[in-house]
Structures are given as C-alpha cells and as structure tokens.
Amino acid sequence: MGALFPDTHPAAEQILVDGLRRMSGAARLARACDLREAALSLARVRILERYGELPEREVRLRLASLWLDAALMRRVFGWNPDERGL
Asked: What are the DSSP calls for the chain, one per residue?
C-alpha cells in the first residue's frame, strides 16, 4: 500500500491504519459521525463569528451552502449563496 498521507511519517501512518483495522465497522462509522459533527460545529462557529447572531434557519442554510452547490440551494431553499454569502 502506498502512502495515504504524504506529509506523515510512514510509521505514524501505519499506527493509524493498524488502529483502524482493529476497530469494528460500527466503531469506524461512529468515529466518522463524530468527525462530521466536529466539522459542523467548527463551521457553525465560523459562521457566527463572521455574521454575528443569526436566526437558526439562516445558520442552517449557511451550513448547507458549504456542501450543496448554489443552484441546488436556490432551487430547493430559495437561498442564493452568491448573494447572501456562505
């Protein structure tokens, strides 16, 4: 197997891979869900720091616009990230 992370020492990468292999599928899925929640929390903080206090719906729309394309945001939510910002 080639290097997964070119900026990581091969021994450190091997420790990571071995640890992931020892985990059950459910544990790996739980870890991925935890990482997703952490990323969303950080994005929420960034949005609130940038725009200040916002209604919850607007925070959610701005979060959604981080991973949905602008055309979909306009069509489904009537939200134009190009005008309103992320």
From this structure: ---S-TTS-HHHHHHHHHHHHHS-HHHHHHHHHHHHHHHHHHHHHHHHHHH-S--HHHHHHHHHTTTS-HHHIIIII---HHHH--
Taking the C-alpha atoms of residue 13 and residue 83, their distance in angstroms, rounded to an integer, is 42
Mean pLDDT, rounded, for 19-30: 96
Cα–Cα distance between 80 and 86 in angstroms, integer? 9
pTM above 0.85, yes or no: no
Going by pLDDT thresholds of 50, 70 and 90, the confidence category of residue 4 is confident
